TrEMBL record:
Catalytic activity: guanosine(527) in 16S rRNA + S-adenosyl-L-methionine = N(7)-methylguanosine(527) in 16S rRNA + S-adenosyl-L-homocysteine
UniProt gene name: rsmG
Protein name: Ribosomal RNA small subunit methyltransferase G
Any Pfam family the entry gives: GidB
Main location: cytoplasm
Organism annotation: Marinobacter metalliresistant
Chain's role: Specifically methylates the N7 position of guanine in position 527 of 16S rRNA.
InterPro entries with a match to the protein in the record: rRNA_ssu_MeTfrase_G, SAM-dependent_MTases_sf
Family: Belongs to the methyltransferase superfamily. RNA methyltransferase RsmG family.
Amino acid sequence: MTNTLWQGQLRDGLAAMDLSLNDGQQQQLLAFLGLLNKWNRAYNLTAVRDEREMVSRQLLDSLSILPWVTTDHLLDVGAGGGLPGIPLAIALPAKRFTLLDSNGKKTRFLNQCVLELGLDNVEVIHGRAEDCSPDEPFTRISSRAFTALENLVNWCGDLLANEGEFLAMKGQFPDDEVAALPAGWQVRSSHSLDVPGADGERHLLVIARAENWR
């Protein structure tokens, strides 16, 4: 019953968002959701436990930022249960994704997802953002329900290319967090996200170094 429900919700949600994913990608997304639901009971990967809300609040919400993933290699910090990183990687198989989290249980889950779903374009790193040393900085870094914007730029600023952008997913527009951004950082743009089936507001904030803001 659950899989049938999810299949219909995903198909209708993708159509409403004008996203075209093939049958194989949709099956991968549903398989990921099944893994997330199963592992969540023991690992507390996400607060969403109502199976009727999972497609909207986990898959469609993650996919809502697809138009802004314009880099060949994206870093997802505080990847947790793989949101938005895993759904984005399924939707964009030609791009590379690095998922970073300091929680060992969560990175074990992410590695299991990569293995079971055959995600050759995903790398999982267990560690803190401050301790991460990539070969080259990232031009896009995503975060979802990770931390305040001030912490995001302070902890991860060194991982972002000089001309790069943070893609910070939030619920209500975080006026206080924007006001607390350190000098040298600015909200380049903000976007209200329309996620089918989701209650409440959803926003994407694109944050960049102020000297690169035009």
